[in-house]
Amino acid sequence: MEHEITLVVNGAARRVRVPGRRLLSDCLRHDLGLTGTHVGCEHGVCGCCTVLLDGEPVRSCLTFAVTVDGHEITTVEGLAGPDGMSAVQRAFAECHGLQCGFCTPGFLCTVTALLRDNPAPTDEEVVEGISGNLCRCTGYQNIVKAVHRAAELIAEET
Amino acid sequence: MKPPPFEHHAPRELGEALDVLAEVGPRGKVLAGGQSLIPMLNMRLAAPEHLVDINRIASLATVEPSTEGVTVGALARHSQVERLAGHPLLRQALRLVAHPVIRNRGTVVGSLVHADPAAELPAVLALLGGSVRLARLEGLREVGAAEFFVGPMESAVQPGELAVSAYFPSLPPRSGTAFREVARRHGDYALAGVCAVVTLDDDLHITAARVACVSVGPVPVVVDVGGLCERRPASTVDWAAVARAVREETEPEGDIHASAAYRLQLVGVLAEQALKDAAREAAGPWGSDPVGT
Ligand SMILES: Cc1cc2nc3c(=O)[nH]c(=O)nc-3n(C[C@H](O)[C@H](O)[C@H](O)COP(=O)(O)OP(=O)(O)OC[C@H]3O[C@@H](n4cnc5c(N)ncnc54)[C@H](O)[C@@H]3O)c2cc1C
Ligand code: FES
Ligand code: FES
Known about the structure:
The complex is a heterodimer of chains A (158) and B (293). By secondary structure, chain A is an alpha+beta fold. Chain A has a 5-stranded mixed sheet, sandwiched between helices. In chain A, helix 2 packs across helix 5. In chain B, helix 2 links the parallel strand 2 and strand 3. The model of chain B has no long low-confidence stretch (mean pLDDT 95). Chain B has a 5-stranded antiparallel sheet. A 4-stranded antiparallel sheet of chain B has the order 11-12-13-14, sandwiched between helices. Chain B folds into 2 domains: 153 residues, 2-Layer Sandwich (Uridine Diphospho-n-acetylenolpyruvylglucosamine Reductase, domain 3), CATH 3.30.465; 109 residues, Enolase-like, domain 1. Chain B is globular, with a radius of gyration of 20 Å. Classes of the chains: A alpha+beta (158), B alpha+beta (293). At the A-B interface, strand 4 of A face helix 2 and helix 5 of B. Bound molecules: flavin-adenine dinucleotide and FE2/S2 (inorganic) cluster (2 copies). One FE2/S2 (inorganic) cluster binds next to loops of chain A.
């Protein structure tokens, strides 16, 4: 049986028909064509499918699209504003917080929420905050630097 | 890695959920945070015909602290309980449950029902002597922690039943708690873990001491070590004897992550550490170093 649902994705209401078993990650990628959300493990371990659900980071591979009918989703495609990339995105670019980029959408969503809740995190809080996201390229050091840099940029710009 | 097909039900009221659960019986499963069930569906380890999704039943998203204890509703997420429960042991345990992002979605009650022998929250419920309230169409029943955990990944919840809330009792005055575990990576399920509660009298002598151990038996293993502490101050307790007593009660199994012998070694060490931490916390800032270490 298919369900007709509405998701508010990056500010725009999108109607889709999905079977109950459609994962939010697949709904975003296949039904809505938003392939910025990546899929690695599909059991919650790698974090690259992380999106914001009503502002809170969640695993889109461990969420059914039907469950979040009517809710707001922000994907990596929605992080940039009208003036270009967000502070978090710019900090990742500046600090070389990415290499292949596969893990990056998940990190960007996670860190966006982290800095909103804690605008000046300690090293320890950063590491705890990103502990659920795996990166096979960077060795994490530059990601941690990027989070601190993003905090600076946000503080300067507000 | 996609879930098998199922029929999705999205009740808005508890009564509606119980109607569907009664109708589908053993062919149905409750979907709460999905942080354990959806991986199992993705890996095709489970294939229920019906999923009763309780995420729209707003009346279940409650955290109600009182002086006697805290009642946590079936839709209260780990992160919400961490913020609102005001229960020290629950907070210590929740910090060890997965990662912050998983905790935004996973529920405390779901973790209890899932009854993973490596999970932290079942041990907390067992240690505190808490209970779970189960509802079915015909009525409610309250199941104590000792009867709730039946075996690995098996709780007392029967087909047609929904766990509506869990109750975690508060601690007596002058009590301290701690949770210690060893995991491969922070956020992973523990190779072995121990939570402890210690209660002191006015002279800082131990009047009660208990631990609950995870990953070393089919269900959380609760060991009362109060007798071995003999109303002594923590600094003169024979901790080696306490660790031995805890090891004797557990029956760890080996797997690819750790051998049974290693888990047995860990559980004794962790029990000593957790009990000392708890005694220190119970003594408070005035009990300067009651543990003598
Ligand atoms: C990467 C990762 C790491 C994790 N690490 C840990 C860890 O270290 N420690 C830990 O404890 N957990 C860990 N978890 C699991 C997490 O805590 C889950 O949230 C929890 O076990 C289940 O809660 P849930 O709400 O997601 O339940 P679901 O996945 O929705 O359900 C789990 C089971 O319980 C049943 N169920 C759920 N709620 C009810 C109810 N109200 N009534 C009747 N039946 C119900 C379901 O039918 C299902 O069988 C991890 C998960 C992931 C993905
Ligand atoms: S794809 Fe979702 S956590 Fe790996
Ligand atoms: S940049 Fe390649 S996985 Fe992180």
